[in-house]
Amino acid sequence: MNLLTVPRVVVGFIFLWLSYRLIVFFRPKKSKHSLRSVAILVLGDIGRSPRMMYHAESFAENNFMTYIIGYGGSKPIPALERVPKIQLRYLPEPPTILKFLPFVLLAPFKIIHQIIAILHELLIYIDEPPEYILVQNPPSIPTLALVWLVGRIQGCKIIIDWHNLGYSILELKLPKTHLYVKLAKWFEATFGRTAYAHLFVTEAMRNFLVEEWGLIGQKVILHDRPPKHFHRCSAQEIHDLFTRLKPSISRHKFLEGFLPESKTPFSTSMTDRKPLPASSHSPSPVGTNPVSPTAPTYENIQPPRLRPDRVALVVSSTSWTPDENFGILLEALTIYEQRAEELAEADSRKRLPKMLMVVTGKGPQREEYMNKINTLQATWRWVKCLSLWLEAEDYPVFLGSADLGVSLHSSSSAKDLPMKVVDMFGCGLPVCALNFECLPELVKEGKNGLIFNTSEELAKQFELLLASFPSSPRLEVLRSSLRNATRSLDHDETTHTDEWDWCSWDENWNRNLRPLVLREIHI
């Protein structure tokens, strides 16, 4: 044998051996994973990802060991910290110095940091590979490739929850022809196509992806639905909430003289429970001792009731991102202020109430828009607007206390639906929603809300629904429809209606996803 061929033979053997090891490495391991376990990957703030938190709770309630992996920041729903089978795993944030880089340079560094952190959690921290890995999409990069890789290595079944399309969100920042957009679209289609199962928030999303990318795997439409504890609040619950929120609201000095005067614990800006003073000759209740001879005593304490002089409470939940055009709401509030002033000067019976617009949530455009509105509302008499951050336990109570909701979500892909509207409906709160392609899957015009296209239309809807407040006939029609919506699945399949479809998250999950994840397990 020629001595020159020896290195080539050695290299050839090494290449064949490495090829064999790679094939073995990437071959699916069908017996390695642990049954009844799931890792849920959220490449975002866990506390601001309600759908994924609800997934975690549902898996745990079905006896799955549940790991939810994502970033910290906001407080998660109480169930995630209370249920024993749920473990929260927080990813480390990228180094602060990277935040000063331009987006084009920041993105690659951020992705590398995320890859290391995610692989550490999925391959090292979790001792036994989970049966399922549920990943939220978007973001697509790098999560879809990473869960595909881990699935190949560990034998896990990958479930992709398609909230939206990642490349369409990138198009909000970059032109459609940009290399990053093209790569993002290819990446999403390539690594998202072959999952074990695909969950879709809308029929439009399913139809589009099946047609465009030819998705392989189980396909389940899982509409967003509110958790079972969301409900319309009683006067007592509203009273307790606004008693807690008074310090936060009182910090906004522009509300002085706008909200009705209140004195806790007997009244708030929304509720009143003025006690009846006892006569000086009335005997003290049995078993009580007055604090002093001059202290006031009361015959009874009245339960809280909504104040007839309260302002109309309107709420919009937003992430303050480019796909939610807050400028439309700003213009609508300006028109409403002008219209309310006109009716007041005309001494018309058709007066409009004062409106307190509360915008919840955090995001990049918050400061910009709040500066604009603070300049405008300095001279407003009928409208005031404030930004308020609510903890997870207070958020549904606030929605259940409000009179009207506003959704500014327009969807970068026009294929997803706003979770905020689902939450509002769960709390019995009618909604005015910005129109886009698949919105009618959720908002039924004139039944559970109204749909607008412009700021002028939104302002007219405010006037229509809030006229004669607090006794607003048009608003009551929408509230009544939400109250009467069926929230139980105790119906035969043949009686399928829109109302029947409106149920709690638990009912919806158990009906659509539970059979899929338990199909190979015999109890």
Going across the biggest sheet, name each strand in turn: 3-2-1-4-5-6-7
Shape: globular
Question: What is the domain tally?
Answer: 2
Most strands sheet: 7 strands, parallel
Under CATH, the topology of the largest domain can be stated as Rossmann fold
CATH class assignment of the largest domain: Alpha Beta
The gyration radius over C-alpha positions equals 28 Å
Summarize the structure.
The protein has helices at residues 5-26, 50-61, 78-82, 103-125, 143-154, 166-170, 179-192, 203-213, 235-250, 326-345, 366-377, 395-399, 419-426, 455-466, 473-484, 498-501, 505-512, 514-517, and strands at residues 34-45, 65-71, 86-90, 130-137, 157-162, 197-200, 218-221, 271-272, 276-277, 298-300, 305-306, 312-317, 355-360, 383-388, 404-407, 431-434, 449-452. The protein is globular. With 523 residues, the protein is of the alpha/beta class.
Explain this structure to me?
It contains 18 helices and 17 strands. It is of the alpha/beta class and 523 residues long. The protein has two domains: 27-221, Glycogen Phosphorylase B (Rossmann fold, 3-Layer(aba) Sandwich); 235-265 and 307-484, Rossmann fold. It has a seven-stranded parallel beta sheet, with helices on both faces. A six-stranded parallel beta sheet has the order 14-13-12-15-16-17, with helices on both faces. Strands 8-11 form a two-stranded antiparallel sheet. Helix 10 crosses helix 14 (455-466). It is globular, with a radius of gyration of 28 Å. It starts with a helix and ends in a 6-residue tail after the last helix. The model is unreliable at 1-6, 278-299 and 486-500 (pLDDT under 50). It is found in: Endoplasmic reticulum membrane.
